[in-house]
Amino acid sequence: MNAERPQFIHIADVMPRPAFLRAWERQRHTRVHWFVECVAEFMGVFFYTYAGTGSTASMVIGNLTGQPTLLQIGFAYAVGVVLALTICAPTSGGHFNPCVTIAFALFKGFPWKKVPRFIIAQILGAYVACLIIYLQWKGNITVVEEALAAAGKLDAINFTPNGPAGIFGLYTTTGANLGFVFANEFFVDFVLGITIWACVDPSNFFCPPVAIPYTIGLAYATAIWGFAPNGLAANSARDIGGRLMAMTIWGRAASGGRYAALAALTNILATVAAAVFYEIFFTDSSRVLPPARRDFLYGHKAHAEHLENLHSPDAFISNSSLHEKVGIEEHA
């Protein structure tokens, strides 16, 4: 049987890596390959245990303290991620989070001049979404606030996860230890960062482009199910946009105090750390691109080339001549 050998494209052919990472790869393929394999096994069991045990802790503590279930919220955010990536990613690249934009600028060649406007647009998107939701629910929120005020509980509960302002702004529980909150935020965001980096790894046979929205969506749902009760932002745009909207309605009291900086900045640090970890231990330039990824990359390349040709001076002259010719023939 003389089957034609398929033509393979390696990551190194389309995405050259920095010199220090190329030097590291020579070591990871030889002397320290055993260590990289052990890191992969360690992280595999870590992810499995982290998701399952974290969700168990959330359920048990929630039952003991009377906190509401997070199942609905987790699924809702998962659906939101899927909608965002499916509808908008073909146009902008699908960052939707300042930490992703910054990490892509550091490691994927995303232009730094675009970073500020992407982040502003992301924050504005969260702000407008929260403002619209407030308008839709304003009547109910007013009734709840009046009932809480009559019972003398509004001031104590409003700027907490269980208060009306907590629908939009992200807050910690009263008396929470910010050190533990930081650790919770960092480790969750680190896991989310590795998940995102694995999804955009062009050599990942297990996650074709069509599966990316669902993989990332489920990762965010898992984070919410397991770790939101301890204080979790996971997205600076969602945090800052929602907090600004809460301050628009309730004033400076809705700012969140010292927790605000922690919520806004920790996921950026954690995502960059996750990207470094993935690039060192999991990215391998010798791996080949699956057919789905090849089509995906070549499709983007063809799009860029078409735009370049479409808007070049020669193309403008050619199109103008064509339009003139059609106009002459129509009037002939």
Labels describing this entry:
disordered C terminus; 332 residues; mainly alpha
Q: How would you describe this protein?
A:
- It is built from 13 helices and no strands.
- It has helices spanning 11-14, 19-28, 33-65, 71-92, 98-107, 115-150, 154-157, 178-199, 212-227, 236-250, 259-281, 291-310, 313-331.
- Helix 8 (178-199) runs parallel beside helix 11 (259-281).
- The longest helix has 36 residues, at 115-150.
On the 0 to 100 scale, the average pLDDT is: 84
Approximate strand percentage? under 5%
Unreliable spans are 318-332
Number of strands: 0
Nutshell version of this structure?
With 332 residues, the protein is mainly α.
Please outline the helices and strands.
Elements: H1 11-14, H2 19-28, H3 33-65, H4 71-92, H5 98-107, H6 115-150, H7 154-157, H8 178-199, H9 212-227, H10 236-250, H11 259-281, H12 291-310, H13 313-331
